Structures are given as C-alpha cells and as structure tokens.
Amino acid sequence: MTTVFDWDQLARDIKRWGRELGFQQVGITDTDLAQQERALQAWLAKGYQGDMQWMGEHGNKRTRPSDLIPGTLRVISARMDYLPGDTQLIKILKSPTKAYFSRYALGRDYHKLIRKRLATLGQKIEAALPDELKPQGEQQMRAFTDSAPVAEKPLAAKAGLGWTGKHTLILNDKAGSWFFLGELYSYLPLPIDVSQQPNRCGDCTACLKVCPTDAFPEPYTLDARRCISYLTIEHKGAIAEEFREPMGNRVFGCDDCQAICPWNKYAQATVETDFLPRHGLDNPDLLALFEWDETTFLKNTEGSAIRRIGFERWQRNLAIGLGNAPTQPDIIAALTRALGQVSPMVDEHIHWALQQQANPTRRRRRKIKQPIS
C-alpha cells in the first residue's frame, strides 16, 4: 500500500521549526548545480583560490550533493543573523591604534552552534515521518555549515534566501548580508522553493571600489589571493608587502565590502547571545593584543573562530597593524622586544613594521568610506 503523505505541510513545518530554532529564514532547493560547477571550475583554473587547495579537492562533491552524501535529493538551506547591535565598525576602522576583527568572529565559533541547530531540525523532520518513510540503510540527514565541500552560497540563492552580490556574498532584500549559512542534506522528496530573489545590485559598484586591496577583478568574481580575509586567515606564509599598508588595522578578516553595501541598512541585530563580543575584541588595542603570549592567546580565543589562525599568524597580522599605526615609542619598544623571540616569518613582518614606524612620511593607507544609508 502506498503511503499518502503531505509533503507540502512538512515543508511548512520545516520552516516553522527552523524559525523556532533561531534561523531567520529557511528554504528548500534541489541539487542541480551544473551552472555553478562550470563557474567554479573556471575560477579554479585562474588560480583565484590561492593556497586554499581544498576548494579544488573532493572531485565534484562540492557541486553534486549526492556525491558527498549518497541519496541526497534536497538541500534545506538556512540563514542566521550574526551582527551585534552596536559594532562601532567604522569607528574602529578609523582608529589606527585599534585592532579590527570581522564582526562574525567577535563571539563564539558559529560552526558548532549552527550544526547542532540543523541536526535538531533533522531530528524533528524524521520524527514527523511515518514509519514507512523513516530512513533506511544509508539514508541520512546531514548538517553542514562552512565545514565540508558544500556550495553554500549557490544553494542559498537557489533556495530563495537571497541573490549573489557583486562581492560574491549572498544578499537578502530584507536582511542585507550579515548572516551565516547552514545546510541540511535530505533524502526526502520535499517540494522546492521556486521563488528566488532577483539580483538587485543594479549599477552599484560600491563593494568593488571600496576593497582596500582591489580583490575583485570583475563583478561577481573574487581573487582570494588579494582578499584581506584570505590573507589574514587562510594564508600561512608571509604577506606580500603590497598588501600590508592597505590592510591597515584589520587583524582577522575584512568587512569593507559588506559595510559599504546599501542593502545592509536592512540588516537585523543578532538575537543569539553566543554571537555577542567576548574578551573586548570589538574594541581592542593593537599593542595590548601584540603583547599577549601564546597561553593568553589560547585562553582568550577558546571557543572562537579566531583561534584557527594560530599564534604565529596572530602575531604576523598584529605586527602589520602596528606598522600601520601612528609612530609611537611604546609600539617601537614592543616590536623591538619581540625581535628574535618569534618565528622568522613573524620577524620579517616586525622588521617591516619598525621601518614603517621610523618613516613618518609614509603614505596614508586607504580607509573605508562611510557606508551608504
């Protein structure tokens, strides 16, 4: 006997359960990413991934969900706001003795929180199924958030969560772009959301023009090798000198292309307390952070996405920030004390920073403009 089941009602329940679990929006899409697969291959062929070799690994699993999790028919895509209510973003970027951290990294690491919520959503879904439709054999629901070869942004756009902006991030006409994405791979034949948000970037190129390192060779294309987020987080070696002054005081990531985007006037403050700033990292002094030892770094970044860069890259990034700060005896003294006490790679950046501190006529670094309102 064929089981009659109301899939439309289940889809509505999934979105309601998602909201109850703290997601601002949930959408459902199929797994056809053929167009995005061609675009990814073209991007990789140009070497824009830099050292992120994992972007080209795993065959086609990134754009073929059923290759990653066999039996996947649908992807449930969800977004969760992360921006704290008062981030003083522009104020910190314009304060050269302060350290700037991407706003997503101010609180606890989002990976576990979002995966746990999505896993709970999967459990709710399976609990609602009649016995005949419950998972059999290898069938399973799997939750992801920036943690596996998953094409998060294309899937989010297909699921109706927004459109891909010229800065390559997902934009939502009611929420901007300050949100995390997560996915639940499903074997269930759920009805898909066919209504997608149209691209509303228009003629605006603010995000492209504001980039301190000119990381966008063309709209909708990011050359990660020039991106400050990549340089401060993913890149493990020395940072090329051409990028050091434009980095300014950005120690972990960069938000300039989001901060300037007019759609972010609709961004909503997060209601997740775990995403609120910790250890004063929303307004810290570069020099104070540079004087942390490794034990202090590990203690104060416990449970934070910042810890993933490790102490060496932490020191490297802070040395660049201090080199870009106004000339101060305390900064020169701290940099000098650290020479020879750090790795050769960090030493190189400290030498550069000392040269910058000794050159009062160095050119002014490019600063972010005021956001459009």
Topology:
Layout: H1 7-20, E1 25-29, H2 34-45, H3 65-68, E2 74-81, H4 89-93, E3 100-101, H5 110-127, E4 142-144, H6 152-158, E5 163-164, E6 170-171, E7 179-186, H7 206-210, H8 228-234, H9 241-247, E8 250-252, H10 256-259, H11 286-290, H12 294-300, H13 310-324, H14 329-338, H15 344-357
Parallel strand pairs: 3-8
Antiparallel strand pairs: 1-2, 2-7, 4-7, 5-6
Helix pairs in contact: 1-5, 13-15, 14-15
Helix content: 25-40%
The biggest sheet amounts to: 4 strands, antiparallel
Q: Helical stretch count? A: 15
How many domains comprise the coordinates? 2
Shape label: elongated
Give structural notes.
- The protein has 373 residues and is α+β, with helices and mostly antiparallel strands.
- The chain folds into 2 domains: 161 residues, no CATH class; 152 residues, no CATH class.
- 36% of the residues lie in helices and 9% in strands.
- The chain has 15 helices and 8 strands.
- The strands form 3 sheets. The protein has a 4-stranded antiparallel sheet with strand order 1-2-7-4, sandwiched between helices.
- Strand 5 and strand 6 form a beta hairpin.
- Helix 13 packs parallel to helix 15.
- The longest helix is centred in the first third of the chain and has 18 residues.
- It is elongated and about 75 Å long.
- It starts with 6 loop residues before the first helix and ends in a 16-residue tail after the last helix.
- The C terminus is likely disordered.
